[in-house]
Amino acid sequence: MIALVPIAAVVFLASGLALAYIIGGSAVLAFLATDNGRYLAILPQQIFSKIDVFALMAMPLFILAGEVMNRGGVTRALIDLSMSLVGRLRGGLGHVNIMTSVFFAGISGSAVADAAALSNTLVPAMRERGYSDNYASAVTAASSIIGPIVPPSIILIFYGALMQTSVTALFLAGILPGLLLAAALFAVNAFFAWREGHPRMERGEAPPLLPTLVRSAPALVLPVIIVGGIVLGWMTPTEAAAVAVFVALVAANFYDGLKLGDLAAGLKRTVTLSGSIFMILTAIAALGHLGALERLPQAISSGVEGLGLGPVEYMILLNVLFLFAGMLLDVPVALALLVPLLAPVALAQGADPVHLGIVLCFNLCIGLVSPPLGGCLLVVSTVTKTNYWRLARAVIPFVAVEIVVLGILVAVPEISLAIPRAFGVVGGG
Question: How far apart are CA 266 and CA 259, in angstroms?
Answer without folding.
Answer: 11
